[in-house]
């Protein structure tokens, strides 16, 4: 979920998009967030993969600065491991993405030992 907030002038917020393997949309009907299409993988780590598409302007800024910033809302809980990549890991590493995933499944993942 991307927090739907005002950012400093000139700041860019990357747009989350549907992608091969996406099987859930987080915050679809939550006004304070932008919808986050994702692949929620049925594993003990609760792996969730999302994808972002850059505009030409964003690509130019990235080429110039060579930097991407990640903001996470932890609500003061421990930070979860993060991974940024330019490759879609869903088809190669998570073949179980083919199953439709719903909010009940996500709740079950939260309670896995």
Structure description:
- There is one protein chain.
- With 113 residues, the protein is α+β, with helices and mostly antiparallel strands.
- The chain has one domain (2-110).
- The chain contains 3 helices and 6 strands; from the N terminus they run ββββββααα.
- Strands 2-6-5-3 form a 4-stranded antiparallel beta sheet, with no helix packed on it.
- The longest helix is centred in the middle third of the chain and has 10 residues, at 56-65.
Strand fraction equals 15-25%
In terms of per-residue confidence, which ranges show pLDDT below 50 for 5 or more consecutive residues?
A: none
Q: Total domains, how many?
A: 1
**Rough shape?**
globular
Strands side by side in the biggest sheet? 2-6-5-3
Rg from Cα: 15 Å
Distance between the termini: 25 Å
Brief descriptors of the model:
single chain; 113 residues; alpha+beta; four-stranded antiparallel β-sheet; two-stranded antiparallel sheet; 3 helices; 6 strands; 19% helix; 19% strand; globular
